[in-house]
Amino acid sequence: MFDVAVIGGGVVGGLLLRKLSSYNLKVCLLEKENDVAMGQSKANSGIVHAGFDAKPNSLKAKFNVLGNKMMKGVAEELGVKYSNNGSLVVAFSEEEIETLKDLKQRGEQNGVDGLEIVYGDDLFALEPNLSKTAVAGLLARTGGIICPYELTISAIGNAMDNGAELFTNFEVVKIEKGDCYTLYSSNGEQISAKVVVNCAGAGSQKIANLVGDYSFEIGLRRGEYILLDKESGNFVSRTLFFTPTKKGKGILVSPTADGNLLLGPTADEVLENVTDTTKDGLESVMVKAKQMCDKVPLYNAITSFSGVRAYSDKHDFIIEESKQNKGFILVAGIESPGLTSAPAIAEYVVDELISKLLRLNKKEDFNPIRKPDYFFSRLSIEEKNEIIKANPSYGRIICRCEQITEGEIIRALTENPKASDLDGVKRRTRAGMGRCQGGFCQPYVAEIIAKVKGVSLGEITKKGKNSTLLVGKTK
Ligand SMILES: Cc1cc2nc3c(=O)[nH]c(=O)nc-3n(C[C@H](O)[C@H](O)[C@H](O)COP(=O)(O)OP(=O)(O)OC[C@H]3O[C@@H](n4cnc5c(N)ncnc54)[C@H](O)[C@@H]3O)c2cc1C
C-alpha cells in the first residue's frame, strides 16, 4: 500500500514526486507511456515566465511568480541547464505600447520585480537583430529558459534515488474507492494508495471521471515549432514575445537552454492529443518570426515538432481536493505557465493539501542533489580527463554534433529513471539532437542500448510500442 500515488510523469507530477520523497512516505508515480516527460513537458517553449501575463489573484499568477523565484535553485540542485536570460515583449505600434504599459502594471500587481519599458535605440542595443519596425519592449529581467524534459527526468530520478517508485506503461483505466484507492492499469496490474494526485495533463479529465468527478473539462491546443541549429543560438539573447492580442500571445523567438534558437508555437484547437506538424503551421511560424526579426536565419532549421496544451474550461489552474472524493487531489488544467509554476505547485500540494491528509515527517537522509556534472561536455578539460581516466567510455564520442560520449549513454540506460529506447537516450543525453538529428550516431546508440540491455538490435525501438528500427536482415 502506497501513501501517495501520483498519476502522470510530467514536470508537475515529477516535481511533486520529488517533494514527496523528502518525507517518510511510500510514494509512486504512474505513467502510461514507456518513459517520463512524454506529454506537454516534452515539447514546449521552455520559458521560465516572469509572471506579468496571468490575471492578478489567479492561481496562474501566484504560482508563476513563486515558481520563477524557485527555478534557479531547483535547477542547480538537479544539475539542469537554466539561464536567467530575461525576456522582451515587443511592440510594433503606439497602440501596442499601451498594452505593454498594462502588462507592466499587471506584472507589478503580481509581484514581478524589475519590469521596464525600453524604447528606440535602447531596445536595439539589447537586441540588435530585432526588426527595425519595433518601437518598444517590456523588459522582464527575471525571465529565464530551461530544458523542460531534462527538468522532469532529473526530478523523477532524484525522487527515485530518494526511495520513490516509478511504474511506466501503467495507464490508469479504472479506480476503485474503498478505505483507500485501488488503481488498475490497462495491462491488468493494480496498486493501492491512501492518497491519489491526478497530474495526468491531457488525460486528467478522464482520470477525474473515473472517480465520478465531472467538475472540469480539458481542451487541447497544439503548438508547432521550428528549431534552429546552435550556430544561430546567439541570434537573440532574450526571449522575444509579440504583444498579446485577443487571439493570444503569438509566437516567440528565443534561445534555448541548450543553445539552439526556437521559433513558435502556433495555437490551434485540436480534437486529439497528436503531435504532428503541418505545412500551414510551420509556414505561419516562419512568417511571424520574420516579422519579429527580419534576418532570422531560417536556413539553419534542423527540425520541427509540436506540443499539445491541455487547458481547462476554468481558465485557471485547478489545484484542489476533489469535492466528492476525500484524498483524491486534482492538479489539472496546468497549461502555460505550468512549467514555470511546477516547483511552486509541488510545494503547495504537499504543504497545503497532502499535509491535511497524512502525517508528514521529514526524511533525515533526503538528498536533494542530483548531479551537477550531468553533462560531460559542460566540464573543463581537466575534469573530463579525470573522468576518462577512471572510465574510458567517457573518452569515446558517439554523437559528434553534441559531443556526447559512450559513458553518458550508458549512464542514461542505467541510472534512474532508466532510458529504454533511442528517444529516451536522446532526451537524457542529447545524442541525436544536433545538426544531423541522429543521422550518424543512431546506429551506434542502438548498439549500446542492445549491449547494455542484453537484447538484440531488432528489439530496439525509437519510442516504445511499434517503433522498432530494423525490419529484417539484408545479409
Ligand atoms: C506548446 C506548449 C508551449 C508551452 N510553453 C511553456 C513555457 O514556455 N513555459 C511554461 O511555463 N509552460 C509552458 N507550457 C506549459 C507546460 O508545458 C505545462 O504546463 C506542463 O508541462 C504541464 O505538466 P504536467 O506534468 O501537468 O503535464 P504533462 O507533461 O502533460 O504530463 C502528464 C502525464 O500524464 C500521463 N498520463 C495521461 N493519462 C494517463 C493515465 N491514464 N495513466 C497514467 N498516465 C497518464 C501522460 O502520458 C503525461 O506524461 C507549454 C505547453 C505547450 C504544450
Question: Which key terms come to mind for this protein?
Answer:
single chain; alpha+beta; FAD/NAD(P)-binding domain; Arc Repressor Mutant, subunit A; nine-stranded mixed β-sheet; eight-stranded mixed β-sheet; globular; binds flavin-adenine dinucleotide
Question: Would you give an account of this structure?
Answer:
This protein folds into 3 domains: 1-81 and 145-217 and 313-372, FAD/NAD(P)-binding domain (3-Layer(bba) Sandwich); 87-141 and 220-308, D-Amino Acid Oxidase, subunit A, domain 2 (D-Amino Acid Oxidase, Chain A, domain 2); 379-459, Orthogonal Bundle (Arc Repressor Mutant, subunit A). With 475 residues, the protein is an alpha+beta fold. The strands form 4 sheets. Strands 5, 6, 7, 13, 14, 15, 16, 17 and 18 form a 9-stranded mixed beta sheet that branches. Helix content is 30%, strand content 23%. The protein is globular and about 60 Å long. It contains 12 helices and 22 strands. The structure holds flavin-adenine dinucleotide. The site of flavin-adenine dinucleotide has 40 residues, from helix 1, strand 18 and helix 8.
List the helices and strands and how they pair.
Layout lengths: L1 E6 L3 H10 L6 E4 L16 E2 L10 H20 L3 E2 L3 E5 L2 H17 L4 E5 H7 L9 E5 L3 E3 L1 H14 L3 E3 L4 E6 L3 E5 L4 E9 L5 H7 L7 E11 L10 E4 L9 E4 L5 E4 L3 E3 L8 H14 L8 E12 L5 E4 L6 E5 L5 H16 L27 H10 L6 E3 L4 E2 H9 L7 H8 L12 H12 L22
Helix pairs in contact: 1-5, 1-8, 2-8, 10-11, 10-12
The structure holds flavin-adenine dinucleotide.
Flavin-adenine dinucleotide binds next to helix 1, strand 18 and helix 8.
